[in-house]
Amino acid sequence: MEIEQIGIVEARKRLGTLVSRAVHAHTPVRISRSAEENAVLISEDDYAEFRRLREQAEVVEFKERIAKAERGETPALSFTDADDMFRHFGVTRDGQEL
């Protein structure tokens, strides 16, 4: 499915139409503010379905990890100190990403 892409200025001009298309035709649109900043406008129903599918996939992954751990297939992590642990997970003590 090819997704329409428009700039943020054009999106402002067409917002009502874009929202209607997202809600009634389930047509998403990618809105670009810059090369690095993009968002996708979708209906609330489509977003709820996305969240449901994502949560479902996370449950499956979690169950697979539990099964691996129960079979002894998950290596234990060890750290020299708390700072070593935070570095391993890519965060600082206050939860900021490194």
What would the keywords be for this entry?
YefM-like fold, 2 domains, 4 helices, three-stranded mixed sheet, 3 strands, Antitoxin_Phd/YefM, Antitoxin, 98 residues, alpha+beta
Question: If you had to describe this structure to a student in words, what would you say it looks like?
Answer:
The protein has two domains: 1-42, YefM-like domain (YefM-like fold); 44-90, no CATH class. Strands 1-2-3 form a three-stranded mixed sheet. Helix content is 51%, strand content 12%. The protein contains four helices and three strands. The longest helix is centred in the middle third of the chain and has 27 residues, at 44-70. The chain is elongated, with a radius of gyration of 21 Å. A hairpin with a 5-residue loop joins strand 2 (29-32) and strand 3 (38-41). The model has no long low-confidence stretch (mean pLDDT 92). With 98 residues, it is of the alpha+beta class. It holds the Pfam family PhdYeFM_antitox. This is Antitoxin. InterPro entries: Antitoxin_Phd/YefM, YefM-like_sf.
- Helix % is 40-55%
SSE succession: EHHEEHH
Oligomer: single chain
Strand content: 5-15%
- Mean pLDDT over the full residue set: 92
Radius of gyration: 21 Å
Identify the overall geometry: elongated
**How would a textbook summarize the main sheet?**
3 strands, mixed
Task: Give the structural class.
Answer: alpha+beta
Say how many strands there are: 3
User: How far is the N terminus from the C terminus?
Assistant: 36 Å
Number of H/I helices:
4
Number of discrete domains: 2
How are the strands ordered across the major sheet?
1-2-3
Low-confidence stretches: none
Pfam families: PhdYeFM_antitox
Function: Antitoxin component of a type II toxin-antitoxin (TA) system.
Protein name: Antitoxin
Family: Belongs to the phD/YefM antitoxin family.
